[in-house]
Structures are given as structure tokens and as C-alpha cells.
Design brief:
This protein is of the alpha/beta class. 47% of the residues lie in helices and 19% in strands. It has helices at residues 6-17, 27-36, 50-63, 82-91, 116-119, 124-138; strands spanning 22-23, 40-46, 72-77, 101-106, 109-114. Helix 3 links the parallel strand 2 (40-46) and strand 3. Helix 3 (50-63) crosses helix 6 (124-138). The chain is globular, with a radius of gyration of 13 Å. The mean pLDDT is 94.
Length: 139
């Protein structure tokens, strides 16, 4: 069950969907994405907090406007899609659960992680630049 009403969170998820991210709702689909897209996957753990709205989502969306970008873009919504979020977070170990957060995977391995403390209080442009540097280094 979702902690938040769908009418509140749907537009927040749709922001990323409109830019090519798949909004994932089940653990099985999280696994399937990694099986289908072994090259590279960007995972945004979305959240209702202000730093997701002002920093994480815009930063992630700006980051893909780069010569190199992940083959697959996905998002899970903390407090909404618990099963999918838990599965994605399992793949982000040893990092503790963090919302929002952004993780880059290359060949199924976590290669870059932005936790909430890397996102909160930083402008979206800084988040995007951080991610672009990771894309250029790993992809």
C-alpha cells in the first residue's frame, strides 16, 4: 500500500516518464530491466520531498542531455512502490536506503551513487554535471 495518495505522486513520477524514464512498480520488473539492459541503467529513487522536486528529478533529466547517457532509464518511487523500491535499493548495497537517490549501473554493477546528502541543497545543474562526469567515465 502506498503511503501517499496517487493523485499527489503521479505528476512527480510523470515528470521523469515524460523524459524517457520507466516508472517501475514491481520487483520483478526491476530485475527484468537489469536482465534486458546489461550495458547501463540509471535508477532514480523518487520522493515527495522538496529536494527531489528541485534537485534530483531536474538534475537527472538534465544529465541525459549528454553525448554519453545510460541505455535504460528507470525510476522507483519511495513510499509508493515499496516492492520495486526495496529491490532497487537491494542492488545499491552497501549504500543505505536514501530518498531521493540516483544510481548508475554498468554491466549490472553499481558504479556511481548520489545519496540524499549529495542531492539536498545542491542545484540541479550540479547534480546533472556530477552524473554527466560519471557517464563520461563509465559509459
Amino acid at each position: 500500500m502506498s503511503m501517499y495518495p496517487p493523485h499527489l505522486t503521479a505528476p512527480m513520477a510523470q515528470e521523469l516518464v515524460d523524459k524517457g524514464f520507466e516508472n517501475v512498480e514491481t520487483a520483478d520488473r526491476v530485475e527484468a530491466i537489469f536482465n534486458e539492459s546489461p550495458d547501463s541503467v540509471l535508477v532514480v529513487v523518487n520522493s515527495v520531498c522538496g529536494c527531489a522536486a528541485a534537485n534530483a528529478r531536474p538534475g537527472a533529466m538534465m544529465s541525459i542531455l549528454n553525448d554519453k547517457s545510460p541505455a535504460k532509464l528507470m525510476t522507483v518511487f519511495a513510499g509508493v512502490n515499496r516492492e520495486a523500491t526495496d529491490k532497487a535499493r537491494d542492488m545499491m548495497v552497501p549504500y543505505p536506503p536514501s530518498s531521493p537517490s540516483i544510481a548508475l549501473f554498468k554491466d549490472g554493477k553499481l558504479v556511481h551513487m548520489l545519496e540524499r546528502h549529495h542531492i539536498e541543497g545542491r542545484p540541479a545543474e550540479m547534480i546533472a554535471d556530477n552524473l554527466k562526469k560519471a557517464y563520461n567515465a563509465y559509459l
